[in-house]
Design brief:
This protein is α+β, with helices and mostly antiparallel strands. It has 5 helices and 6 strands. It starts with a helix and ends with a helix.
Length: about 170
């Protein structure tokens, strides 16, 4: 009987996982802009952007447009990418073509939640995009969180691509 109870509890814990909202999109935007958040703008995903985004994501992009917010010299993006099976929501602030801030806003997977930790996300600071659409900075992985790490790298690259695609 105790074995069945222990097994049931383990299965329940694994199914619940570490799904959590750490910060809302609005809270992230307030952290960047203060209490007055500017109106969002729209980036239409043109064919050239779609081709590059597909290369970054290793799958087709699932939307025709995306919202962003403009700052002095930069942009802010709220993007999602699948970790293993569920989306990870991330806020990215890009300044002068480099990442100024990246933060996991919501994590829905059972494993890999460590990517929300500052020791991991601070590695992205000042990362840019090279000519091969790769980050120009090495990002160390986390054992047991490989798919979540890949998802955050893809989101960072996508935000940098989108920022670069704007005609400013």
């Amino acid at each position: 009987m105790y074995r069945r109870l222990a097994l049931s509890l383990m299965l329940l814990w694994n199914s619940v996982g570490h799904s959590a909202v750490y910060q809302t999109s609005e809270e992230f935007l307030q952290g960047i802009f203060g209490s007055v958040i500017p109106a969002p703008k729209i980036l239409w995903i043109t064919k050239p952007i779609k081709q590059k985004a597909t290369k970054i994501l290793s799958h087709r992009i699932g939307f025709l447009r995306t919202r962003y917010w403009e700052t002095d010299g930069g942009t802010v993006w709220i993007l999602e990418e699948i970790g293993k099976t569920k989306p990870i929501t991330v806020g990215v602030a890009v300044t002068n073509g480099h990442i100024g801030k990246i933060k996991v806003l919501a994590f829905r997977e059972s494993r890999g939640w460590e990517v929300k930790q500052e020791f991991f996300t601070e590695q992205f600071f000042q990362a840019g995009l090279n000519q091969h659409l790769k980050l120009d900075k090495n990002i160390d992985g986390i054992s047991g969180a490989t798919l979540s790490v890949r998802a955050l790298k893809k989101i960072a690259r996508l935000a940098l691509l989108f920022d670069k695609s704007l005609n400013r």
